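ZP: hey, is the flavin-adenine dinucleotide complex queued? I don't see it on the tracker
AM: it wasn't, my bad. submitting now with these inputs:
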Amino acid sequence: MSLIQLIYTSTVSETFEEKDLTAILASAKKANAEANITGLLCFDGNFFMQCLEGDRSQINATYAKILNDKRHQALELLAYSTIDKRSYSQWEMGLVPKAALSRPLNLLYTASGLFEPYSMSAASAAQFLRALRNAMPLL
Ligand code: FAD
């Protein structure tokens, strides 16, 4: 079994409502716990950026479901690699508070200083998420 980390970004669909985020998180946490998947989800009201880590076949199957979810669109895979250890083992799916997507952090990883995950390299995306993790309380 290979341990994989996958990071993608997407754009919220027009029909998305705030309550959808609560439903996504609840079902993601349950399904991820069953599949031993851990990770982190960022959402600024426009873009999603999510990291999933776990067994390769479980990650691939979960990403296939996420790809077909009409609550978001324009998915782009930012990073997919084998890893030696997990970065988000404490979260079945942690949600980054919107306020944490701050200008000082964005300036480190994007030219505009805005939350623009589509412009991030694989390395930037991984580092950006780890910086957020380090600033987050354990939930
Ligand atoms: P079913 O429950 O059988 O649903 C069938 C289809 O309807 C699927 O295409 C599903 O995506 C879609 N669907 C389900 N509920 C709704 C709804 N309320 N509104 C519109 N369409 C709906 N799942 C995980 O397991 N782990 C994750 O980490 C995870 N993260 C996600 C992050 C984002 C940003 C989004 C949008 C979704 C995420 N999901 C996650 C949910 C995932 O996309 C699937 O909905 C879920 O895995 C159930 O898939 P299913 O094929 O069993 O769907």
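AM: back. The mean pLDDT is 95.
ZP: great, adding it to the tracker
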